[in-house]
Amino acid sequence: MSLRADAQKIIEAAITAALPDTAVKKALSGEDFSGGKLVLVAIGKAAWSMAKAACEVLAGQISDGVVITKYGHAQGELPNIRIFEAGHPIPDANSFAATEEAIKLVQNLTAEDTVLFLISGGGSALFEKPLVSEVVLQNITGQLLACGASITEINTIRKRLSAVKGGKFAKLCEPARVFSVVLSDIIGDPLDMIASGPAYPDRSTSREALAIVQKYGLVIPQEVEQLLRIEPPATLNNVTTKITGSVRQLCVAAEKTCRELGYKPMILTASLSCQAREAGSFLAAIAQYHQDTEQSLAFIAGGETVVQLKGKGKGGRNQELALAAAEGIASLENVAVFSVGSDGTDGPTDAAGGYVDNTTKQRLAEKGISIFEVLENNDAYHALQAVDGLIFTGPTGTNVNDLSVLLIKR
Ligand SMILES: O=C(O)[C@H](O)CO
């Protein structure tokens, strides 16, 4: 089989292993929701598939529900559930309208009732009732996404500008109990940061929020600065939280498939979090060191890199990572690097990620495309498109960070 076919198999197996279906059912098994009303709120890119699993396991018990997911991520009707699609990564009018529906749903519940709250990454944009105007929120979100801030830094700011993030949605549910099930898309599974922690006590501080503004030179109006000085709730008494899956599953499934395909696999890390370009160069450097191997090798890294936008091109962190690796593997033989977002979307593109091999640099050069220039312009999408290096999966139904793999085939 070709390197490309191997990559395809590894990607499919890893994403399938990270689908939330079984994990959500396991998290709900043995739980007793009788006694009062059970309503469901699901947010994030995996909201629909998490809600589907909950509906299957709690058949007939859920009296009403709201699912808020990204455009194109809903896959059909669910019993007693209203499904909304909205903007990501920048919230839009549909995010706000759908969030109002979720808030209405949890108002007037009693202490006997339960809100089953299914949280996945992407929730920060999709689930939002802003404390500032739409224009201000979109402007600040845009600055945060472009400046190279980590997701923890971004969400430290976001939760202070919101009436539902930073534990505030759980407060709105009171006196009802909130049973929340979380699919993690942040390294280390910080529950107060995943989807900006709408049902988890905040652990960040206003001092940190203001330091982030300084660090990245964000331009903020005075009303925002005032909001950043207000601490979200640090304690919540009505919430139980279960975490159901993370990037580790992706890595372990990739490792298993690599082994089945004849590679000797090694998981390098499940917490890759540097600049995308650096991660790509690092994987290429590993390939260089092992170029004389007689055995097929696979090096696996899970996590989520960042891109500091400088250019006006189109791309995503996975595409940048792969393209950056193409330079360093160009003189080797039978080597490939690929990187994909488990949710099926890499940056603001329709691709899940990028694939390169040792021929990519040469093929790009024949088309007059310089890797260096493309990376400077953050335009990996068009370069990879020119050499058939884009990976497409469509929305996958899960969201547990990214998988990056180096294959050396012998
Ligand atoms: O929605 C978000 O905030 C990110 O996906 C991290 O969870």
From TrEMBL:
<feature type="domain" description="MOFRL-associated">
    <location>
        <begin position="7"/>
        <end position="228"/>
    </location>
</feature>
<keyword id="KW-0418">Kinase</keyword>
<dbReference type="InterPro" id="IPR037035">
    <property type="entry name" value="GK-like_C_sf"/>
</dbReference>
<dbReference type="Pfam" id="PF05161">
    <property type="entry name" value="MOFRL"/>
</dbReference>
<dbReference type="InterPro" id="IPR038614">
    <property type="entry name" value="GK_N_sf"/>
</dbReference>
<feature type="domain" description="MOFRL">
    <location>
        <begin position="298"/>
        <end position="402"/>
    </location>
</feature>
<dbReference type="InterPro" id="IPR025286">
    <property type="entry name" value="MOFRL_assoc_dom"/>
</dbReference>
<dbReference type="Pfam" id="PF13660">
    <property type="entry name" value="DUF4147"/>
</dbReference>
<dbReference type="InterPro" id="IPR007835">
    <property type="entry name" value="MOFRL"/>
</dbReference>
<dbReference type="GO" id="GO:0005737">
    <property type="term" value="C:cytoplasm"/>
</dbReference>
<dbReference type="InterPro" id="IPR039760">
    <property type="entry name" value="MOFRL_protein"/>
</dbReference>
<protein>
    <submittedName>
        <fullName>Glycerate kinase</fullName>
    </submittedName>
</protein>
<keyword id="KW-0808">Transferase</keyword>
<dbReference type="GO" id="GO:0008887">
    <property type="term" value="F:glycerate kinase activity"/>
</dbReference>
